[in-house]
TrEMBL record:
Its EC number is 3.1.3.16. Keywords: Hydrolase, Magnesium, Manganese, Metal-binding, Protein phosphatase. InterPro entries: PPM-type-like_dom_sf, PPM-type_phosphatase-like_dom, PPTC7. It comes from the Eukaryota. It catalyses: O-phospho-L-threonyl-[protein] + H2O = L-threonyl-[protein] + phosphate; O-phospho-L-seryl-[protein] + H2O = L-seryl-[protein] + phosphate. Belongs to the PP2C family. This is Protein phosphatase. The lineage of its organism: Eukaryota, Viridiplantae, Streptophyta, Embryophyta, Tracheophyta. It is an enzyme of class 3 (hydrolase). Residues 1-195 form the PPM-type phosphatase domain. The keyword Flavoprotein does not apply. PANTHER family: PROTEIN PHOSPHATASE 2C (PTHR12320), PROTEIN PHOSPHATASE 2C 26-RELATED (PTHR12320:SF60).
């Protein structure tokens, strides 16, 4: 992201988030892999988004999620990632989308640590109660995700998805009435923005 930040005004990027991912990834020498999402707002109010993996973005308008990105996975809990290795996903694998923002929209961008632990209705509620202070909203959402990630009995988005995909507790625990529950311990990154004019 540091490389992306330094390249955002590069002429070759030209407000294209996929190109920004390409250039930032090529300029990165760190070893490892990561998911990524980049959103770029044009002067006309169009938000252009490119993402690789399971980071996400929600646009909230008048108390409703009006736009949502979808995660990219090879299979459950194995997201697409950019890597320092020659094999793997590239900027060409990025899902690209756009949405027209209007005054009053709130953007919530986060890592899977947010979306695996916090439901959209909880995000909308947090935005509704803290909407005048985006920094506070981001902190509230990050803290909520962290709290849920540690709760072994919480019916998280992650545990519901796991069960829907056939993952659950061993049969002997099912006989005892138990099921797979709990949040997912993971990195948690949250960015919140507010559209001031269209």
């Amino acid at each position: 992201m540091s490389k992306a930040s330094s390249l955002v005004e590069d002429e070759e990027v030209s407000y294209n988030p996929r190109t920004l991912i390409q250039k930032a990834h090529a300029a990165t020498s760190s070893v490892g892999s990561a998911t990524v999402i980049i959103a770029m707002l044009e002067k006309n109010g169009t938000l252009k988004i490119a993402s690789v993996g399971d980071c996400g973005l929600r646009v909230i308008r008048k108390g409703q999620v009006v736009f949502s990105t979808s995660p990219q996975e090879h299979y459950f809990d194995c997201p697409y990632q950019l890597s320092s290795e020659a094999v793997g996903q590239t900027y060409l694998d990025a899902t690209v989308s756009s949405v027209e923002l209007v005054k009053g929209d709130t953007l919530v961008i986060g890592s899977d640590g947010l979306f695996d632990n916090v439901f959209d209705h909880e995000i909308v509620s947090a935005v509704g109660t803290t909407s005048d202070d985006v920094t506070n909203t981001a902190k509230v959402l990050a803290n909520l995700a962290h709290t849920h990630s540690l709760d072994l009995s919480y019916e998280s988005p992650y545990s519901l998805e796991a069960r829907a995909r056939g993952f659950d507790v061993p049969w002997w625990k099912k006989i005892l009435g138990m099921k797979l529950t709990g949040g997912k311990l993971d990195d948690i990154t949250v960015i919140v923005g507010h559209a001031e004019s269209s």
